[in-house]
Amino acid sequence: MTKLLCPSMMCADFSCLEKEIEDLERGGIDIFHLDVMDGSFVPNFGMGLQDIEYICQKAKKPCDVHLMITNPGDYVETFARLGVQIIYIHPETDKHACRTLQKIKDAGAQAGIALNPGTSFDSIKDLLYLCDYVLVMSVNPGFAGQDYLDFVTPKFKKLVEQAKKYGGYKVMIDGACSVEKIKLLSAIGVEGFILGTSALFNKGRSYTDICGELRGL
């Protein structure tokens, strides 16, 4: 199974962002992952609109945006106009998540949901018909550097098993995505991996070498 390697650009070196983008693409990544936080749904602030616009303009590979914000439906068109091709929302923050997912599709992007560790499969299963991607949080959203929550692993298995029934969405992992977890979860059938400091950044090695090793796991 092909792995989707998705660097979390919140972890990139913003002092040389254009070079980071070029080096990551040369290294073989698939999707740039962009985090947006509002300080309300999660106790932190993420990337700004100017950051996202810049990366979308410079990148040759597609960009996604992970909206860790309240009322994400109000901002779908904004991010689609910036050039984002995949938009994740948290159904926990949206009273009308079904409508928002359709709004993402109508804006010309692919739709995804991001699930907190405590969000069950049964609570979101009816939304899966509208999803191109399902991003499972294996840590509580908002901060890098947390430990993987082992109780989330059965949810990955359930989502992979049910994917065909609901139209064939791709299952992704976000949070504490280490080499060991990539090996474990790819064997289960997880396709996409959001890469931060656990597997990609600040390793003192080229992205080409690291991405090559991750694909070979």
Summarize this entry quickly:
This protein is of the alpha/beta class and 217 residues long. The chain is 31% helix and 18% strand.
Explain the layout of strands and helices.
Blueprint: E1 4-7, H1 17-27, E2 32-37, H2 49-58, E3 63-68, H3 76-82, E4 86-89, H4 97-106, E5 110-115, E6 133-137, H5 153-162, E7 170-174, H6 179-188, E8 192-195, H7 207-215
Parallel strand pairs: 1-8, 2-3, 3-4, 4-5, 5-6, 6-7, 7-8
Helix pairs in contact: 1-7
Describe this protein's structure.
The protein is α/β, with parallel strands linked by helices. It has one domain (4-215): Aldolase class I (TIM Barrel, Alpha-Beta Barrel). Helix content is 31%, strand content 18%. The chain is built from seven helices and eight strands; from the N terminus they run E-H-E-H-E-H-E-H-E-E-H-E-H-E-H. It has helices at residues 17-27, 49-58, 76-82, 97-106, 153-162, 179-188, 207-215, and strands spanning 4-7, 32-37, 63-68, 86-89, 110-115, 133-137, 170-174, 192-195. The protein has an eight-stranded parallel sheet.
